[in-house]
Each structure stands twice: as structure tokens, then as C-alpha cells.
């Protein structure tokens, strides 16, 4: 059933914090171990037999299309191009007419988690959740912000970045989202999933799937420099 879902990757970020090390391309095309970072996410979708993906692009969107075209290793690619920054939620809302499935598998384009997506889907389906966030444990959770969950997996609260030092559960940037939730996002305006949409759905069918999967992002120069070692570790 997972293979029948539409997948979407949020790939429109400006990558402002990476400009000192990645200046000539959008963040999702930053080279990690000799290949564009985005291709690692596409390979993850191919692994679970998903056949089509929508790329929500913005900054230097033409470079993404020129690099990947309409197909990558048999995976069909459709593009949703924002003409001004819409944020993670706004970009997703704009792309809604391109989705056929319910729910939709959503991935952030600047992070990677090696979680088993099939297990995530089965867990979400059993709970009849409106939306599920894939969570993982981080030693430095304050860099990302923590997610708190009840024993049944229901999300109870979010903590902003920098508010709580130490380890904790964080969002790994992979979501199973219902069409109803996506439709509720205001169209044509900049909206954030993490700061505005998800907090409003606490207590309304929002769940978190806990894992201990490896996670990384390329949002900062230091994190980007370490990305090659991360993927080398996965290959061993």
C-alpha cells in the first residue's frame, strides 16, 4: 500500500545558512559524496517501490529540473514551482492538485533519516491517524526542537529550538499527511508546517512514530561537512 502513495519532497529552501559552502546551486543539489543530496531521498523512495514524486521547488528551481529531468532511475518526477517563498506548508498546499493519494508521504529536502518507511506506514494506518510524524532520538535535541508524545503515540506538545538542552525526540522531517490537513493550510501565503500547522493539530489526530534511526541534515555548514561520513556509515 505504501507504494501507491504520492510522495512529495519540499525542495524550495533558500539555503541561506549554507551560502558560505554552497553558493552556485539550491541546497537540495549540494554535492554529498559526489552526488546531489536530493538523490539520496529519491533512492529511499525507490527502495519502497514508490513510482512518482512531486518536487516542491522554488529557489533556482530550473537547476533542479535540469539536473534530474522528469525521471530518475525509473521514478517519475513532477514539479511544483513557487514564484515566491511559501514556506514548507505553503509549498505543500500549492502542490495539492498534483496529489491523488490520501495520505501523502512528505519529506523535507534538506534532511535524511534511515528509518524503515514501510513500518512507519503500517503504524500510521493502524492508528487511523490524521497525520503522523516520524520521530527519532537526538543527542542535541535543542538544535532541532523537541516533540513530546503520549504512550499511545499522540503528539502532546512541541518545544522550540534552543529551549531544552540534552537528548530528546525530534521530527526527522518525514510525514504521512491527510489531504484534509493539507487542504486546511491557507493558500497563496507563507506558512510553516513546523511552527504553525502541526502545533494547531495537537489533540486532533496528530501522532508521532518513535524510532532510533540515524538522522542528519545539511542545514548548517558543519552539518553539511559531516554528511559524507554519514552516508559512508550507512553503506557499511
Give an overview of the whole structure:
The structure is a single chain. The chain is globular, with a radius of gyration of 17 Å. The chain is 28% helix and 28% strand. Strand 10 and strand 11 (155-158) form a beta hairpin. It has a single domain (2-235), classed as Spore Coat Polysaccharide Biosynthesis Protein SpsA, Chain A (Alpha-Beta Complex), CATH 3.90.550. The longest helix is centred in the N-terminal third of the chain and has 11 residues, at 37-47. The protein is built from eight helices and 14 strands. The mean pLDDT is 91. The protein is an alpha/beta fold and 236 residues long. It has helices at residues 37-47, 61-68, 87-95, 117-127, 179-184, 193-200, 221-225, 227-235; strands spanning 7-11, 31-32, 35-36, 52-57, 71-72, 75-81, 104-108, 111-113, 131-138, 147-149, 155-158, 168-177, 206-211, 215-217. It has an eight-stranded mixed β-sheet, with helices on both faces.
Amino acid at each position: 500500500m505504501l507504494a501507491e502513495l504520492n510522495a512529495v519532497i519540499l525542495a524550495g529552501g533558500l539555503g541561506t545558512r549554507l551560502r558560505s559552502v554552497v553558493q552556485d546551486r539550491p541546497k537540495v543539489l549540494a554535492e554529498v559524496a559526489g552526488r546531489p543530496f536530493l538523490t539520496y531521498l529519491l533512492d529511499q523512495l525507490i527502495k519502497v517501490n514508490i513510482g512518482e514524486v512531486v518536487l516542491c521547488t522554488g529557489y533556482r528551481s530550473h537547476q533542479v529540473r535540469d539536473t534530474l529531468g522528469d525521471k530518475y532511475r525509473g521514478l517519475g518526477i513532477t514539479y511544483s514551482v513557487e514564484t515566491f517563498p511559501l514556506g514548507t506548508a505553503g509549498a505543500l498546499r500549492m502542490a495539492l492538485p498534483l496529489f491523488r493519494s490520501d495520505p501523502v508521504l512528505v519529506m523535507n529536502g534538506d534532511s535524511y533519516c534511515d528509518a524503515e518507511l514501510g513500518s512507519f506506514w503500517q503504524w500510521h494506518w493502524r492508528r487511523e491517524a490524521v497525520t503522523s510524524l516520524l520521530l527519532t532520538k537526538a543527542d542535541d535535541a535543542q538544535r532541532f526542537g523537541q516533540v513530546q508524545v503520549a504512550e499511545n503515540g499522540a503528539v502532546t506538545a512541541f518545544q522550540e529550538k534552543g529551549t531544552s538542552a540534552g537528548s530528546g525526540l525530534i521530527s526527522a522531517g518525514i510525514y504521512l499527511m491527510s489531504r484534509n490537513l493539507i487542504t486546511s493550510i491557507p493558500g497563496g501565503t507563507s506558512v510553516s508546517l513546523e511552527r504553525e500547522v502541526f502545533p494547531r493539530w495537537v489533540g486532533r489526530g496528530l501522532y508521532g512514530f518513535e524510532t532510533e534511526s540515524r538522522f542528519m541534515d545539511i542545514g548548517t555548514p558543519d552539518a553539511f561537512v559531516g554528511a559524507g561520513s554519514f552516508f559512508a556509515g550507512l553503506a557499511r
